[in-house]
Amino acid sequence: EIVLFDRSWYNRSNVEWVMDFCTPEQHQEFLRSCPEFERMLVRSGVKLLKYWFSVSWDEQRERFESRNEEPLKRWKLSDMDLEEHRLYVKYSMAKDTTFQYTDIKQSPWYVVPSDDKRNARLNCINHILSQFNYADILPDPVELPDREDLAYVRPPMHEQTFVPQAY
Q1: If phi over 0 gives left and psi between -120 and 50 gives alpha, with beta otherwise, what is residue 151?
Q2: b/e per residue, 32-60, with b = 16+ CB within 10 A?
Q3: Distance in angstroms (rounded) separating the CA atoms of residues 86 and 78
Q4: pTM of the predicted model, to two decimals?
Q5: Domains, the chain, ranges and CATH?
Q6: 60 phi and psi, to 5 degrees?
Q7: Which candidate, 3, 21, 4, places its Cα nearest to that of 12?
Q8: How far apart are CA 13 and CA 24, in angstroms?
Q9: Tell me: the pLDDT tens digits for 78-137?
């Protein structure tokens, strides 16, 4: 099983902190408790991988300009995006503070240079796959059981509402 925490897990130490959505006490409590929680996960057998997709200010600006120029992509560009772009240095400082507290040996941060989206994604996928021994995971064939007979009669198909079959 693979579970992904998106950036919202670290919002408290980054977005919420930079945008004043949390108090200094809440921010400090997250920085204190987050590594404890991550250590607990690792002790419980979780393979915890943390990736920071790092985009330069210039690349971020180019992406925003591209979105702004294309009417069909303009909806992706919010007021919050513009404010966060303006606060790029504060976000960089918050990231550095986050790493200072949460880049622990049990679950280190892996930085993915991400000015090139395709290569960033491929490099990250390659790294994830390299962290697991998945060579011997082919299960043995199983015997499929017979269906239990309950003498149940299903309602007629014409009494059900189906999604149109467009494909």
Answers
A1: left
A2: eebeeebeeeeeeeeebbbbbeebeeeeb
A3: 13
A4: 0.76
A5: 8-132 (3.40.50.300)
A6: -60, -45
A7: 21
A8: 10
A9: 999 999 999 999 999 999 999 999 999 999 999 999 999 999 999 999 999 999 887 777
